Amino acid sequence: MPTSLHRMSYLSAATFQPLSLIGLAGLLAVCQSNNDRNGLTGALAVSSDRFFGVVEGPRDSLFNLVARLQRDGRHRDIRILELGPASARIFERWSLVADLVEPRLAISLADVVMPDAIAVETRVAMLEGLTRSLPQVGGLR
Ligand SMILES: Cc1cc2nc3c(=O)[nH]c(=O)nc-3n(C[C@H](O)[C@H](O)[C@H](O)COP(=O)(O)O)c2cc1C
What's the pTM value of the predicted model, to 2 decimals? Predict the structure, then answer.
């Protein structure tokens, strides 16, 4: 089943310091166009210098992305938290939620990216809630 729906989530630490709007905008542009093309949806949480990402779509596209993420020098210490079949998509598109852009979400974002034990399902649900609270127009989508 090479094209069956899968979900992957990961934690990592940014190496581009300090995180800047320009750096995030560059990342957003590439991610959005690549993910649209590859049938991938999901979200990337950015808080301080940490990332939590969730991506869902065809299995092959996801494995391909994992390989690219692992070669990307903009982050390190990548920890894949889950990678497996999913029954349905949780995210309708791919979006980026950053404390730099949405300071009002800073406290929740800090929880989502924290490295300690918190169930991956909980993290994904928290991130999904945060993406829903983004403005329809004007947010980084
Ligand atoms: C935290 C983080 C998340 C990323 N998420 C994605 C993503 O969802 N989709 C994507 O195509 N690239 C993503 N990238 C960028 C890839 O690592 C890679 O640079 C990009 O896909 C282009 O790869 P290429 O130069 O090998 O074609 C991400 C990079 C970082 C640092």
Answer: 0.93
